[in-house]
Amino acid sequence: MSNNSLRYSKTMVVIHWLTALLVLGAWLTAEGGREIVDNPPLLHFTLGLAVLALIVPRLILRLAGPAPEATGERGWLAIVAKAGHGLLYLLMVGLPITGWYAASRMGVTVSFAGVELPALTAVVPGRPGLIAELHENAGTFILILAGLHTLMAIWHQLVLRDGTLRRMSLR
Ligand code: HEM
Ligand code: HEM
């Protein structure tokens, strides 16, 4: 039995894959610019806020429970992997909050599956602002990072054949 046969808990696995779908969905439904004031991308809000909702149990489980032993990655690659995962966690929290803030600032009411949420800031007319720009760029960045992360998973699966993907699967 190698270290890599150790798995994430079933709950972590379900949350991981659900989040992957939600992030992709949020990216696909994203819209920018002033026109969203008249036509808010409600699906984008709901999918993005679901990422934020899922990060709460995920972080609790991750911090409270024993995480599986590290993969076979050694040296700088282990550090890169850790930093990459850390950045993904940061984006999963930061993206929805900056998006919510940006919408509020533009005067767009944010709702989660039809339930209206309070505004995070006062309405400012004119350009969407710096936080909105940060949100848009971070939205592209998470997709690139998740893409690299996926490539690494495929590399582990097909080239190293070390069972890393099994750590994030239900059986
Ligand atoms: C098809 C897409 C994806 C594949 C194949 C995949 C695969 C994996 C695998 C195999 C692991 C376990 C790595 C290990 O044991 O060290 C993992 C961990 C992780 N994945 Fe993904 N993933 C995908 C998409 C995503 C997305 C979209 C996100 C977030 C936006 C994400 C965030 C994470 C994080 C944060 C971890 C580390 C978990 C922890 O140790 O706390 N993944 N992924
Ligand atoms: C993982 C979650 C999310 C991702 C990946 C994401 C991604 C993006 C991207 C890529 C854009 C730019 C679209 C374009 O310019 O064509 C965008 C715009 C926007 N998103 Fe998100 N988003 C997420 C969550 C949210 C949430 C939860 C909200 C609000 C509750 C939100 C509100 C907005 C708003 C208001 C804009 C327009 C900003 C502007 O025009 O300057 N986003 N998002």
Automatic annotation (TrEMBL):
Coiled coil: none
Transmembrane annotation, as ranges: 12-30, 42-64, 76-102, 138-160
One Gene Ontology term of the molecular function aspect: heme binding
InterPro entries linked: Cyt_b561_bac/Ni-Hgenase, Cytochrome_b561_oxidase, Di-haem_cyt_TM
Cofactor: heme b
UniProt membrane topology term: Multi-pass membrane protein
Location, primary (coarse class): membrane
Subcellular location: Cell membrane
GO biological process: respiratory electron transport chain
GO cellular component, as recorded: plasma membrane
Keywords noted in UniProt: Cell membrane, Electron transport, Heme, Iron, Membrane, Metal-binding, Transmembrane, Transmembrane helix, Transport
Protein name: Cytochrome B561
Lineage, uppermost ranks: Bacteria, Pseudomonadati, Pseudomonadota, Alphaproteobacteria, Hyphomicrobiales
